[in-house]
Amino acid sequence: MESERCTPWCLKESPTVYAIPEDEAREENLKVEFGATQRKKDQMIRVKLLDPQARLQTRGSAKAAGHHLYANEDKTITAQGQEVVATRIAITRPKGTYGRIAPRSGMAVKRLISVNAGVIDSDYTGEIKVGLAHMSDQDYQIQKCYRIAQLIAEKSSRKQLLPNFQTGKDRQKTTRIWKHGNFQSTDV
User: Fold this and answer.
1) For domain 46-155, which architecture applies?
2) Which H or E element spans position 92?
3) SS3 content of the chain, % helix, strand, coil (to 5)
4) How many CA atoms lie within 13 A of 81 on its CB side?
5) pLDDT tens-digit profile of 80-123?
């Protein structure tokens, strides 16, 4: 079997082993260990409590996609209204990700409360506040320490948009059509 790394001629001689001074080997090992530790740290969501009574995010289960965000204030969301609720935490996300604030399923279904404005850009490091919209005809009381939303770290793309795409030259015709007022994925 031939490859760029090992061709039959490379096996004609015995491999040579060079001794590395102990200090140099120890330094190299530390660099490797530090690099591995740093990569693990770079994949973590770092949290800063902006108030001693703020609650850290928690997961509902080991395999949950998001972390619960907690209210750090009492607030009433009026019927058909919306409010911004403070969490009093700030975060940094893993490299190459952004934060998405998503509704909690139970609040959305049972209480008709959803999340507005759910993107946290990777360069935003201020307090996370959650915009909640209430679609019921009755007021809803948010209490301090209620789980109000989920925080999900998602991969982000920094690809740039193509200029002059609308010229039609580079654009392919779509097979999607409007059918009876609903968007259909294909004409089949």
Assistant:
1) Distorted Sandwich (2.70)
2) strand 82-92
3) 20, 35, 50
4) 12
5) 999 999 999 999 888 888 999 999 988 989 999 999 888 998 88
